[in-house]
Amino acid sequence: MSVVIKAVEKRSPAARKGIKPLDVLVSINGNEIMDVLDYRFYQNEKVLELCIINSKGKQIIKKIKKAEEAELGLLFETYLMDEKHSCKNKCIFCFIDQLPKGLRDTLYFKDDDSRLSFLFGNYITLTNITEHEIERIIKMHISPINISVHTTNPELRVKMMTNKNAGQVLSVINRFNEAGIKMNCQLVLCPGINDGEELERSLHDLTGLSNVECIALVPVGITAFRENLPKLDAFDKKSAEGVLKICDDFAEKCVHQYGDRRVYCADEFYLLAERQIPSAEFYGEFLQLENGVGLWSLLLSESEEAINDSEESLLEKRKISIATGEAAYPLICDIVDKAGKKWHNLECRVYAVKNNFFGGKIDVAGLVTATDIYEQLNDKDLGEELLIPSVMLRNEGDLFLDSISVDELSQKLNVKIIPVDNDGYCFIDRLIGR
């Protein structure tokens, strides 16, 4: 496979050698270039020999000398250089299958791409991986790789993912471990299916691998749109307590064996079990924030530090409001109360937005829609600004899940809306108008 060069950066090593847009990159130092990982890995050498097919169809060789790891200067149509690899599974717990119609088109695409795991931290199931990709990951020592395991029981994994190959590819984890590839693993747990004894089996297998750095236990999310899908139960207080007990038992063993916990539960399990969420120190390097592991503690810790470190006082009275999900509501209230004790002229009202859009069972802030915010806050006094978590919006920061823009909602509510990143220092700055 060859890739078409879309553009060449000015004054780059490639530009100085006369490489032009629409030229085709075939190989670097004899290594075929198939996608972004090949390109980024093989361009790092000081001396490069590029095989190019120019616009006239002639194959030519360009020899380039540059600083080690300096950018070559070639740009391509997409960051992957080809299409994303879509998921071939039909997981019984898949959240995308539970989405209603009418949301942003990109929300319905299921990716399962090993390149995205390395580049952006996406989780892959390994059912989509080729032998070429496995060998390349090992050769390039691409690490860490984020893997959605769910269970190490091959037969159960086939049933949960509705893919006959789902059990066989578990052997890839062992190959990566033997090659020294670091792995972060995710287990989406479904009550009565892969928790209990099955969870113990999975954790026994995974914690036995020295290069599995971190394992996140995440509760299944259930919306009101599970039409023609397998029946699943949500976790309750008792079942959540059971998961926490198993997690703590294996984490203690890991501390003795490796010197760190390695096994963590998502914050939601602590909330369901009505247990206090551990302090920030508990989570080490916070390797599984994207799975909701330690988000609560990190935001609280950073916010408290920001409040304590700041000596500024507000010059004028400030009246604002915050909209968040039901799960984070107690945390945001706690932080606002702490800030209010330092800045007495800060008046802030926090609103917990119930997720009626997804049926009321989803309580995380990242899945709150503009529709629910408007329906529940349109008659409230929101003050001069309404702060919202930026995770409610797509990456570009402009659209909610239900395709309503921030500007549209702002006009309907007649208030300025300020998205805030999940960072305690940023949150406090926005809270006090700094």
Description:
- α7 (196-207) runs parallel beside α8 (237-258), α10 packs parallel to α11 and α10 packs across α14 (424-431).
- The protein folds into three domains: 3-76, Pdz3 Domain, CATH 2.30.42.10; 96-292, TIM Barrel; 299-431, Rossmann fold, CATH 3.40.50.
- The longest helix is centred in the middle third of the chain and has 22 residues, at 237-258.
- Strands 1, 2, 3, 4, 5 and 6 form a six-stranded antiparallel β-sheet that branches.
- It is globular and about 70 Å long.
- It is an alpha/beta fold.
- Helices cover 32% and strands 18% of the residues.
- The chain starts with a strand and ends with a helix.
List the helices and strands and how they pair.
Elements: E1 3-8, H1 13-16, E2 24-28, E3 31-32, H2 36-42, E4 47-53, E5 59-65, E6 74-76, H3 114-120, H4 131-140, E7 145-148, H5 154-161, H6 170-178, E8 183-189, H7 196-207, E9 212-219, H8 237-258, E10 263-265, H9 267-272, H10 295-309, E11 318-325, H11 329-342, E12 346-353, H12 370-377, E13 385-389, H13 406-413, E14 416-420, H14 424-431
Parallel strand pairs: 7-8, 8-9, 9-10, 11-12, 11-13, 13-14
Antiparallel strand pairs: 1-2, 1-6, 2-3, 2-4, 4-5
Helix pairs in contact: 7-8, 10-11, 10-14
Quick structural overview:
By secondary structure, the protein is an alpha/beta fold.
- Are there runs of 5+ residues with pLDDT below 50, and where? none
Discrete helix count: 14
Series of secondary-structure elements, N-terminal to C-terminal: EHEEHEEEHHEHHEHEHEHHEHEHEHEH
The CATH architecture of the largest domain can be given as Alpha-Beta Barrel
| Distance, first to last CA | 52 Å
Say what the CATH topology of the largest domain is: TIM Barrel
Helix content: 25-40%
Strand content: 15-25%
